[in-house]
Amino acid sequence: MKKINFFKKGQISDARLLLTITIGIFVLMYVSAIIFLGGGFTHAQQIFDMLNYNSSFIIVACGLTIVMIGGGIDISVGAVTSLVVMACIKYLNPVYSETGEKLSGEGNIFAALLIALGIGLAFGLVQGFLISYLEIQPFIVTLAGMFFARGMTTIISIKPMKIEHESFSKIMDARIEIPWLGYTARNGNTIPARVEYGVVIALIVLIVVFLILKYMRLGRCFYAIGGNQQSALMLGINVKKTRFLSYVICGLLSGISGFVLMMHSGSANATNAQGMEMSAIAASIIGGTLLTGGVGNVAGTFFGVLTLTTITQIVVSSGFNDLALQNVTIGGMLGFFIILQSIILTRRNRKKTG
Amino acid sequence: MDGKELLTMRHIKKQFPGVLALNDVDFTLRKGEIHALMGENGAGKSTLIKILTGVYQMDEGEVRIEGEKVSIHSPQAAQNSGISTVYQEITLCPNLTVAENMFIGRDNSLFSNRKKYEKRADELLKQLEIPAKSTQQLGRCSLAIQQMVAIARAVDMKCKVLILDEPTSSLDDKEVNMLFKLMRNLKSEGVGIIFVTHFLEQVYEVSDRITVLRNGELVGEYLTEELPQVELVSKMIGKALDELNSLGDPDETKKVSDEVFYEAEGLSSENALPFDFKIHKGEVNGFTGLLGSGRSESVRAIFGADKVTGGKIKIKGAQVKITKPIDAMKHGIGYLAEDRKRDGIIAELSVRENIILALQVMNGFFKPISRSESEAFADEYIKVLQIKTANRETPVGSLSGGNQQKVILARWLLTHPDYLILDEPTRGIDVGTKLEIQKLVLKLAEEGVSVTFISSEIEEMLRTCSRLIVMRDRHIVGELKGKELNQVQVMKTIAGGEA
């Protein structure tokens, strides 16, 4: 017979437990990298580089976490990011005639930002509408969205493009320098830590999404519909609208992600950000978001991104500069995390009913 | 107790295609009263509840709350008129906190005011004496607590009428007592509670009044203390005791062999309490009891359809292990499920494919039954059982209920079982087919097959079974055979107590 389950002190929710595990594993991994590999890992710049390279990835992963908490999935995010980069660079670059004559001037950066947001929003609105109101499978809708966005990217330009825009190039090269986190090079010069502006945007997005999920009514409704859709309906939540908004936000974040990726790389090609959606799903899952919905946290997703990147860095630093090995390691880690999650959750649940 | 009339439903009528679900039913709930709504399957109580909660619209009649006429056209409208429902299935979000479950979806503010909600929730939990904390994740609370949180939500929404639909079916005794305490608390605050349950003892423990429905009609409203349990049962089943006494006994005592086919000792499953049971070769026995008394759960345990949690099983005297349906099938046990739509037929597959399914599973999937063989089997049983189907390749979903049932029966007969469990095989099928199935059961028994037969219709069971096992509130409370096999005795045993 089960006892009445009185609350025990220190009993933590499933979500928080998963987050703790993720942070713990990340710290463990990083510390062992410092001990065994040393080198770059001892510098703060290592962390900042991880952020510099992954600012757009963090943003995309935040969007995907929202959708996954709501019980959905969006695999179009990588393709939309790539489309945004291509469209913005096409717009920003001056147009030359065949003889090399300049036909038009450079585009406006602010307008480029609007294009980025507009593309992301459009994908979010259409996919969200199809999924929420017409009740089509999210996987299929966003799969179609993914092909569509990839196709559009190629239509804009089949050739890789590089940004040729004076003031945008300045933004690209701009860095925030943090001297006290720098390190002393062999020649005695102090090299400050350098952070790209994209990282700032990514962190702002991260904090905003965190606040939405934690403190806004809408955020709590994402959890409710992901936890139990039928119950959410009975509790008086507008399930369709809530789900719709989760895809709209995710789409919008894909737009921002594209803009940030452009700020980082300054170039576009048709295979940009390929596989980013899968990595973002992986980061969310490692960060404790359940694919079944209702549980998750962007703080976890952030550490998920860091964990994935650290794995890559460790593999590279160990001298195996081999993509295959990286993927195998990431695959193994992901499997490990998922098994760990499910073991912990089932054990806890068994305790509850046993 | 004679409080003001809180809710009055008058001349409620609801017609479904082919069925008059409610015919001129009245229902009255007073302030500060716990009112049990009783009735067997198809009596109309769930239809009545659904009209009250805005899931169905009534065709005729009126509903008044505190004298004012209300129109309940949606679940939202019901809540706004002060009618809240707590369903058997918890309709809360397990991944949110207790406080959030009490307040989410109730306002349109931009931010979720966590602190305020938690404070209010803690106050309410304390006031209602619910042992939970507002910041706890709901899924980590026991089912009883979850149910109480749902009630607390309803209370905070200023509900006047609280409907509890089978709230106790998944709770243990201690939890039931906690729930009852909460119900009494609410009652003293003037809330009117409609209590739907099939546990007779619980009705007598908490309710003040009982309304009985039968076949969509009102049988009557009674004060609980003035209605003996046995009379309640006869009102629910619809036979007066005197009328039954005059019927006389079905005299013939059916003979059974001494050989015991199946014997279980202390068998229990996740849904069934431990029980002992045995059946002889060629015997037809039955499990009877009111809906929810545990009769289906018991036979499901025998077949291994629910997770078996304990007990010793012997087949033909040899100890065996049956934990999964396939184990049971390998020992020659067949089971025709109560809900043929959910557990039985596969509507998209053809008659032929449905018929050979069980045999195929027994053979293993690497030894497929050849097409011609399966066609021969299908044709044979379509003929023997007179299944009315266009041809053997017709999808089963397009057949009538009775014929679907025959298809499932054919499926099990094809495996040549030694022991067949039939759970409500005659529900929802026409009288002619019912008789055919009863005859078939008796014929099988003559051929040496043991059969366990369950039906809501006691007469049907008396006609077919030579031994009846009576269940009440999930326990076996009696075993009737020979002369005891008559309606009066059955009903007395079901009701229990004196009388």
Explain what the structure shows.
The complex is a heterodimer of chains A (354) and B (499). Chain A is mainly α and 354 residues long. In chain A, the strands form two sheets. Chain A has a two-stranded antiparallel sheet. Chain A has 13 helices and four strands. Chain A has helices spanning 14-36, 44-69, 77-92, 109-132, 138-156, 166-173, 197-215, 217-227, 229-234, 239-265, 276-286, 298-317, 323-353; strands at 161-162, 175-184, 190-196, 267-268. Chain B has 499 residues and is of the alpha/beta class. Chain B folds into two domains: 5-227, P-loop containing nucleotide triphosphate hydrolases (Rossmann fold, 3-Layer(aba) Sandwich), CATH 3.40.50.300; 260-495, P-loop containing nucleotide triphosphate hydrolases (Rossmann fold, 3-Layer(aba) Sandwich). Helices cover 36% and strands 25% of the residues of chain B. Chain B contains 18 helices and 20 strands. In chain B, a hairpin with a 2-residue loop joins β19 (467-472) and β20. In chain B, α5 (143-156) packs parallel to α6 (173-188). Chain B is globular, with a radius of gyration of 25 Å. Residues 246-253 of chain B have low confidence and may be disordered. The interface between A and B is large, with 33 and 38 residues.
